[in-house]
Amino acid sequence: TVWSAYAVKSWPTLVVLDVNGKVAWQQSGEVPRKTLIRVVEGLLSEARDAGERVEGATVVPREAAPSGALRFPGKVSVWPSATVQGVGPASGCSQLYIADSGHGQVVACSLEADDDGWPFVQVKRRYDGFVAPQGMSRWDENLYIADAGAHQLKRIDVNTGALTVVAGTGERGMGGPTSSDPLQVDLRSPWDVAISGEAGNHVVLVAMAGSHQIWIYLPEEGRFGPFAGSGREDHVDGGFDEAALAQPSGLALHGSYLFFADSETSSIRALDLSERQVATVVGKGLFDFGDVDGAAEIALLQHPLDVTAGENTLFVADTYNHKIKAIDLHGGPVVRTLAGGPDQLWEPSGIDRWGEFLIVADTNNHRLVAVHSKTGELRELALHEG
Description:
This protein is globular. A hairpin with a 5-residue loop joins β1 and β2 (23-28). It has helices at residues 2-5, 33-49; strands at residues 13-17, 23-28, 76-79, 94-100, 105-113, 119-127, 133-139, 142-147, 152-157, 163-167, 190-198, 201-208, 213-218, 223-228, 238-239, 248-254, 257-262, 267-272, 277-282, 294-295, 306-309, 313-318, 323-328, 334-340, 350-354, 357-362, 367-372, 378-381, 383-385. With 386 residues, it is mainly beta. It has two helices and 29 strands.
């Protein structure tokens, strides 16, 4: 009703009312803070000149920052990847990386089974030097991180702890590449990272949420630019250059496919890397969202932010539904709720697989949880300091 009353046609749309409650300014898309300050200060000045009372506004205090080990954790990444056969409790100790976004850190942990066979997480190191880190992926001794708040792709040498910016100026870009030098390109909200390749040669795929594209970084060649998506925000399948994406935010490589959470279309979609085609697993369009399980033709998600792959199943952080969903691929995509709900999770935004378990960033509850991928049983994961 509010949407229609203000003639909103897209989101985000910002509407500013004057002191009399009338629409004074409206703009679609992301609005820079400086622009908004200028609009508001101008309206207040006009109101004062007209003799209107503009003081006495109610100020809502911010909630106190949580005092726990994590603050708004974003993505989580298990290494070696669960797509490597045998990774999980039976294979002994793995590594878990957590984007502790609210603290501007990446937390490196060991991950092994406790006496009950559930994940046991022990903190080994905290890496500083980030604004709001999100997705991560490790290749050999290098951990690549999408620092969404800094609009940069960064890399940590896990042996020395050295942090390097590999792409991005630190300024938010408009979408397209502006230079052949990755360090001179203004990026727009990189949100996740996936790595593919062989020893000595790898490529880094980046979910560039703000420009509605998947980008590719070639470390050996020093090149970085769009890989799939026209840059237009929409839900259109097809060839990499013609397809339209809408805020891709989570990536999962599986075989010759790159699955991704296309958040603004509430969809799970895929890049067929061999055929260079974009396809949809579940989802319909920009304005089709909800909480409906079932076959792909009727299923609805709501702003999913991450996805991870099992053998014949995709597991989704269905963020605005506060749930973990499973998409069974064998015999046709079928969506089912595996765990969660508002009484258990609060906007989970990161998920990765470790054997039969899913490691989930329960973002607004400032914690990690483990979900058994077969039973849906959910347990909170404590971070034990090493």
